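**Sequence, structure tokens**
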Amino acid sequence: MLRHEFRPGRAVVGVAMLALAAGYAADAAGEWDAPWTFYFPLLFGGLWLGATVTWISYRLRRRRAARKASAENAAAPASTSGSQATR
């Protein structure tokens, strides 16, 4: 049983930040010589990708919830307008 809801956007941002930290550590240790401009695309790209994944997962959850609610309420009329609506 899950203890909390899985949030894939946060996982993506976490992986991007780990990559950023690993690159910074390798540069600081002298193992790798990366220009300082390398880190900005990685930072903002990771944040953008995380936001995109969060938005997509939000839309999918809403769609799944709407389908479930629609399936549970299949006997209800589709519309309350028209001549057969009760007042």
User: Anything to note?
Assistant: The chain has a mean pLDDT of 83. The longest helix spans residues 39-72.
